[in-house]
Amino acid sequence: MVKNKYLDEDLKDELVKIIQSCNINFLIGAGFSAGLLKPLGNLEKTIEIIKQNPSNPKNIVLESYMYWKFFEESMYPICDEVNKENLKYQIEFFKLWLDILNERQSSILPKQINVFTTNYDIILEFSMENKFIDYNDGFSGRINPYFVTSNYNKLFYKQALFTNRKSEIPIFNIFKIHGSLTWGTDSHNRDKIIYQDYRKVLKGFFDYNNGLFTKSSEKDNIGSVISVYEKISKCSWDDLNKDFLDNAIADIKYTNEELKDKYIPFIERYKDTFKIVNPTKAKFCDTIVNKNYYELIRIYCNEIEKENCILFVLGFSFNDEHIEDITKRSLNNASLIIIIFAYSKRDRDNFNEKFEQFNNVMIVGLSEWDKDTLDGSVYIDDTKTKEDGKVKEEEETKEEVAVTISKEKTEESNLGIEKLNEFLINVLKGDR
């Protein structure tokens, strides 16, 4: 059964022991960059419904605008938002893990940490470079850097100037499972991934395409597309379905010339410019088509199936069914430990439901979430039923649990990266 833990001294002592003897891995999702880039919202579900009837011209028009909004709100802001001030906690996070890696006493385990992420942005690279942390992102070369997964099969050493003594250089391996904004295509070899200047590409794409989706007059058809998009954005996740979308897109106006010369070419340019797996549930189908995506998925699977392995999960919801399935299968590896840091109490409940049958999974939250349901240091999932307006507790266990329901509404605290950094400082102290 899944174990629930708190960010406290007991967990600190446990982690100090674990990291001494385990291969360290991270799985990082969009939550790691929360607050900087706009979340997907209804984008994934909308495009998934659109793909059920891809030949419908109005679906094509809407799809093109959805991709534009995704670019405008979740990709283009990277040019300005990724800076030292906005990423101070992410920068500190990786510096702390570098210190932990340096303090580790093991001479058998490599001084490496694997960081797997589904994020396209360059927040990981920026954070590490800010503290001069060495990382391997799979690229080789300087004049024309190219990506190949075999570059991850490397260890790095430095040699003392006078004694010739060699020591391993601590390094972070960055695996971008769904691609990266730094990935481009070689014009002479479409199967070859080359490094591209993300700022230049983002700004160039914005300047070239911005006018396509700007409303210039009341008679401009793009206004009807914008109105439909706003309606979809306000729709709740549960209410967003094919019937709702069919009714909404009925208001979209377009001409055949716009479809041929504007919307279809934009979708093609978008997919050709950004070598990323787009946010749809069909991402697995896209993944196995491209050998680089497939290879990174394979590496993830192999790494977490190694002996004495730990996987820390941050900002990742496991809504990606493919990665969830691979991760759950890997839990047959009895020496694997997965530690999931839940951002909120609701997230913790969702993780408990997903991993309830696994005893090598720990879900970490804050003790204050359970100030009304504490029994020692263990999370108690109290079941309540309402009867005649009163709350009646049902006894789910043999032990009697005293539960006090707070009558005051207080703002719930979240387990963000700032709190996690404070905890890691204590882990580092305990490791010395």
UniProtKB/TrEMBL annotation:
Top-level taxonomic group: Bacteria
Official protein name in the record: SIR2-like domain-containing protein
